[in-house]
Each structure stands twice: as C-alpha cells, then as structure tokens.
UniProtKB/TrEMBL annotation:
Swiss-Prot/TrEMBL cofactor(s): pyridoxal 5'-phosphate
Stored Pfam families: SHMT
GO molecular function, one term: glycine hydroxymethyltransferase activity
EC number: 2.1.2.1
Annotated protein name in UniProt: Serine hydroxymethyltransferase
CDD domains: SHMT
Gene from which the chain derives: SHM2_1
The species this protein was found in: Boothiomyces macroporosus
Length: 435
C-alpha cells in the first residue's frame, strides 16, 4: 500500500480511476500528452517543499544550493533542446503555465494600454492573445492592453496576412503575437517579422502547441525571426504542466539588450512568487528527452499520424479546416453534417474517445462551435502508428454516422406525433422560436 492509499483512500481512488481512463480511452486532445514516468517522479518529489524566489545565485531564501544547480541545468537544456546559442538567447523556466508565461512576456515588454495583435480565438488563436467578444474583454491580455485580433481567411482557413498587414498599418501595434491553439498549418514568420518591423513592433511566437515539433525541427523555426518565444511544456513537448519564456540577448545598447532583465523581472516579482522547483526538475527531464534521436522519431510519427487521420476523414467526405494538416492536429468542420462540436464531444465521451469541441472560422458562437479538434501527440506517445490512426479516424466516422442516423430517425418518429397536434398554439409558438 502506498502512503497516499493509506492516508487518503478517496483521493487515491480518484487518481486510479483517472489513470485507468487515460489507459483505456482514445486520447485525442491536441493540448495533452503522456509524460514519462521520470517526469512524473520529479514532479512528485521533495523539490515541492522548497521556496526559492529569485533566480539562481540571487534568491530570497537560503538552502537553494541544489535548486540553483537544477534551475541552471534546466535553462541550459531548454536552450540546447531548441538549438539556441546561449550568447544570443536566454530563457526563464519559472512560469507556472503557458498563460502566465504569456502575461509575463507582455508585462516585460509592454506598457499598460499598449496595442497588441494576436490570432483571434475563433480563428484558432488562444485566449491569452488578446481575446475579447463584442460584449466583454475576456482575457486579461485584452483588459490591460488594446487588442485588435487578426483572422484566418474565411474561405481557405489560412492566416490572412494581407489583411493583417493592412490592419497593422491602421492600428500600429507594439506587439504582434503568432501561434495558436488550433491552426493546422505552418506560420510565415518572415512575413510577420516584416510586418512587425514596419511599426517597430515586437514579434512574439507562442509555440505552446508545436514546441515539440519545433525542438525536433519538424516545424519552421520561430527563433530566426522573433524577439520572444513562449511555450507550454506539456503539449507536444511532453513535459509537466508549465511554461517557458525565451528572449533574445544582445550587448548593451543594441536592440533587445534589455529583454532579459525585463522578462525576468516580469516573472518575479511582478507576476509570480516562488518557482515550482519540482516542475522545473520535470521540465529539465522532458527537455533532455526532447533533444534525443528518439524524440525526433516521435515528432515525425506525430505528423504522419495526423496526416493519416486527415486523409482518412477526407476520403470519407468530411471537411477539414485548411483541407489537411502539417502538424500534430486536425481541425474538423462538422457544420456540413449538422452536428455541432459539443454534441460530437459528448457522443465521443460515451464511446471512450476523448476529443474537444472547437471553434472553426465563421462560427457564429464560441459556445456552440461547429467543429472538433483532434491531436495525435498523445496516442503517438502510446506507440500508435498510421494504421491505428486510420482505425481511429474510422471510429470517429462511425460515431458521426450512427449519431446522424439515429438523429434523423428520432426526428422523423416524433414529427409523426407532432403532426397530431397541428393547431396546438404552444407547439406552433415553440416551433417558431426554436427555428
Ligand atoms: N498558449 C497556447 C497557444 C495554448 O494553446 C495554451 C493552452 O492550451 C496556452 C497558451 C495556455 O497554457 P496553460 O493552459 O498552461 O496556461
């Protein structure tokens, strides 16, 4: 019996149940992955007991001799995993998550009220890239900064760079953010750099979703063009839940020479307190793994599996945003089938397939999105190859077909009963309302 089992059987049991769910369900959430046992061991280690506000060598607490070595090791591995020259790039490994990494990056390089442009949420962007609805500034990135999102082209689903450039001329942003939560295509970092330079703006890439692919050189390299790069560590990178902020370093007086100080200060003391040393140890392990030849093979397989799913769904006649994928995810537009993403998510939950509803461009409401997002990174960690990926796509197709068939039959059956009440005023009023 473990200590946890003895001390708290209720929590122990819930963890076992969740573990079993993870073992037995088809996990297709694009932002998730399965970390290694080593990562989990470090995450649950004695490091969780330690306070270490500050940076290695300059802490506000004693007893940090091992934590300092650990954080420096993590920083070295982060730069190595992304093939970065330590004289040109630095990294802060303390952010608790992707959201706090982004907000710290903004806090460091912007003033309150500065203008930012990020990909709109319904176009695949993330909340923290300045999301606001017509009625409400949702994300703190829209509350504390002026946000004008850019969109994908409504016909193709690809980023509309021409419109972004036109709008940037009017808006004159201080920061352009690239990166997404649901964009299956590559980014044109050179074009974005050129647009940012027209306005003396910073260019930041949030590579949360694709960082494993970037580390494995299976995606374009944002570091060639961006001033700042943020990422989560738990998606394709396959580490614990946390964030990283990479920033350019330069000699005093040159462009970006102040980024290191500004970003480190923004993380602590501006936005965070003590770093989670257990998580930093786990990130260090994941980064060592990400620099290995096995991880390169993993990243290649992730992309092959995503393509296999996309091609099979297309063969079955479905519509995919951008008509395919070059990364780890497939964005499936279910509007032609008349099933919204929420319904599909529920149907899949019942048959042990874990997916998430997702907005697709042109959706009227973010609350009833018309699509679903499928990510192949978790199943690839479970050694799934193209043949099984195709099988998974076929399961999804069957789920859609069965749901459509039963939906049509129940509709028809109940129509006959409704026909018996043609003049009932309540039925007439309701029919007009729901239509
Ligand atoms: N950035 C992007 C592009 C994301 O997709 C996400 C999460 O899904 C985040 C940031 C936020 O990460 P976290 O949930 O760790 O705060």
């Amino acid at each position: 019996n473990t200590a946890l089992e003895q001390e708290d059987p209720a929590v122990f049991d819930l963890i076992q149940q969740e573990k079993w769910r993870q073992y037995t369900c088809l996990e297709l959430i694009a932002s998730e992955n399965f970390t290694s046992q080593a990562v989990m061991e470090a995450n649950g280690s004695a490091l969780t007991n330690k306070y270490s506000e500050g940076l290695p060598g300059a802490r506000y607490y004693g007893g940090n001799e091992y934590v300092d070595i650990l954080e420096n090791l993590c920083r070295e591995r982060a730069l190595a995993a992304f093939h970065l020259d330590p004289t040109k790039w630095g990294v802060n490994v303390q952010p608790y998550s992707g959201s706090t990494a982004n907000f710290s990056a903004y806090t460091g390089i912007l003033n309150p009220g500065d203008r930012i442009m990020g990909l709109d949420l319904p176009s695949g962007g993330h909340l923290t890239h300045g999301y606001a609805t017509a009625k409400k500034k949702v994300s703190s990135s829209a509350i504390y900064f002026e946000s004008l999102p850019y969109q994908v082209d409504m016909k193709t689903g690809y980023i509309d760079y021409d419109r972004l450039e036109e709008n940037a001329k009017l808006f004159r942003p201080r920061l352009i953010i690239c990166g997404a939560s649901a964009y299956p295509q590559e980014w044109d970092y050179a074009r974005l750099r050129a647009i940012a330079d027209q306005h003396g703006a910073y260019l930041m890439a949030d590579i949360a979703h694709i960082s494993g692919l970037v580390a494995a050189s299976e995606a374009a390299n944002p570091f060639e063009y961006c001033d700042v790069v943020t990422t989560t560590t738990h998606k394709t990178l396959r580490g614990p839940r946390a964030g990283l902020i990479f920033f350019q370093r330069a000699p005093k007086g040159e462009k970006n020479s102040d980024l290191e100080e500004k970003i480190n200060f923004a993380v602590f003391p501006s936005n965070q307190g003590g770093p989670h040393n257990n998580t930093i140890a786990a990130i260090a392990i994941a980064l060592k793994q990400a620099a290995s030849p096995e991880f390169k093979q993993y990243a290649i397989q992730v992309r092959k599996n995503a393509v296999a799913v996309a091609e099979h769904l297309k063969k079955r006649g479905y519509k995919l945003v951008t008509d395919g994928t070059v990364n780890h995810l497939v964005l499936w537009d279910l509007r032609p089938q008349g099933i919204n993403g929420g319904k599909m998510e529920k149907i899949c939950d019942e048959v042990n397939i874990t997916i998430n509803k997702n907005a697709v461009h042109g959706d009227v409401s973010a609350f009833t999105p018309g699509g679903i997002r499928l990510g192949l990174s978790p199943l690839t960690s479970r050694s799934v190859k193209e043949a099984e990926a195709v099988q998974v796509a076929e399961f999804l197709h069957e789920a859609v077909q069965i749901a459509l068939r039963i939906q049509a039959s129940t509709g028809k059956l109940m129509k006959d009963f409704l026909a018996a009440l043609p003049t009932n005023p309540e039925v007439i009023a309701l029919k007009a309302k729901v239509k």
